[in-house]
Each structure stands twice: as C-alpha cells, then as structure tokens.
Amino acid sequence: MDTSERTLTEVLDSIAASIGRGIELPREAHSSWREEVIIVYCVGKGKFSDDLKYINLQMDMFDLNGKWVGYQLGVHLSYSTPQDLLSTPPPPQGPSDQPDSPVPHRPPKEWTKGLWTFADGSAVYAVGPVQSHLVPFNDGSFLFMVTTGQIITSGTGRYQGCAGSKQATGTAFVPAGLIQQRRFPAPGMEFEAKTIETFRIVKAQDIGSPPGGPPPSP
Fold first, then answer.
1. In the chain, helix, strand, coil percent, each to 5?
2. What sections of the chain are H helices per DSSP?
3. What is the spatial distance between Cα 172 and Cα 24, in angstroms, rounded to a whole number?
C-alpha cells in the first residue's frame, strides 16, 4: 500500500505524531509507509563511572533544524582496552559484490542501553553492541568516536508496543595531553558528547505475528 491509499485519519495521525519529534525523511527513504524514519542529533554530557567501565549519557535532542525535540539518557558499558580503541579491523579483502565474500569481524567488547524521550512524552527504549575508536590529531589531541547498532525493545506513548532498530554515531573531543598523561578517561570525569541518531520504527498497530508464533521469552 502506498501513501495514496492511506485514509484521512492515518494522514492526520501522521501529522499529529510529527509534532515534538525529529524530522522524518522523505518517503523514498522508507521501505514501507508503515515505517517511521527519524534522524535527530544530541548534545550533552558523558560521565565516567569510578571503575571506568561505564559512561552515563545525559543529552538534549534536536531535529535537523536545531529545534529541541526531547532528551536522551543512556549507559555505555565497555571492556575495551586503550589498544582496542586505537586499533582498526583488517582491511576487507576479496569482492564486495558477492554474497559469500568474507567479512572481517571482531567480538564485541562494548554494549549500551538507552531511553529517548520526545517532547510529547513518548519514548523509545533500545539496547545493542557498540564499537569505540580513538583517532589522533596531529596536535596531540584526539577524537573519541563511538558507533552503535541497537534493537528497539519497547516504547511508551505513541510508541507503545513498537519495534524497530536504532543506530547512532557520536564523538567527543579530547584535548592534547589528557590521554598522554592518563587523565582521560578518569573516574567521575565529565565531557561534552555529540551524537547523530537514526530511528526506524514500526508502531504496534502495524505489527503482525511472526511465522510460527511469537519467539520464547528470554
């Protein structure tokens, strides 16, 4: 069913739902009109735990025009070493236009959970693996880079019972000398973080039963 077949009620619901959320992309970016695709950016602070295994994120969320549309709360768990953060996977080998071409992969050492609450009070929960990377600048400073791949587990408000996926890429600037002097990371340290978040959401009213019935509860 394309957008021309949607009822007036569905169109009005879509307009109402757009209030207080990030800008939704053109329909060409959607595989189905029932898929909601949203991109926002977040600006806020990260804080290291005393044992340095965790980072707590508290960030404001904005649409691509700079309008405030909500906030993000999250926790990042990492067992990566400094050597892990400075290393890169091996370059891909072989063809990239064949389905059975080998793909480099490393076991995940980082995971995250998060809550994204939009201005109308609706929220999305998601969890998933993380990869972090440190890129040195030529003046001795660094860019701390993080990428996530999350599955949406649940939601509230207009996203009650939703499903989908969520990806993010974030960075934090680390001034020269901090890493060399082992002052980043530091217990209880706060730093400014900036992320770009992409949501692909299917709402509860459009979700059917999986083949063979629902999967067993974990």
1. 10, 45, 40
2. 8-17, 82-86
3. 26
pLDDT digits (tens, 9 = 90+) for 72-107: 999 999 999 989 999 988 888 888 888 888 888 888
Residue 3: in which H helix or E strand, if any?
none
Return the closest-CA partner of residue 60 out of 79, 73, 77, 48. Answer: 73
CB 133 within 8 A of CB 174: no
Q: Which of helix, strand or coil describes residue 101?
A: coil
* Torsion angles phi and psi, residue 202, rounded to 5: -115, 125
Around Cβ 42, how many Cβ atoms within 10 Å? 23
Which own/partner pairs from 105-108 qualify as long-range (CB within 8 Å, at least 24 positions apart)? 106/131
Higher pLDDT, 197 or 18: 197
**Cis-peptide, bond into residue 91, ω within 30° of zero:** no
3-state SS assignment for residue 157: helix
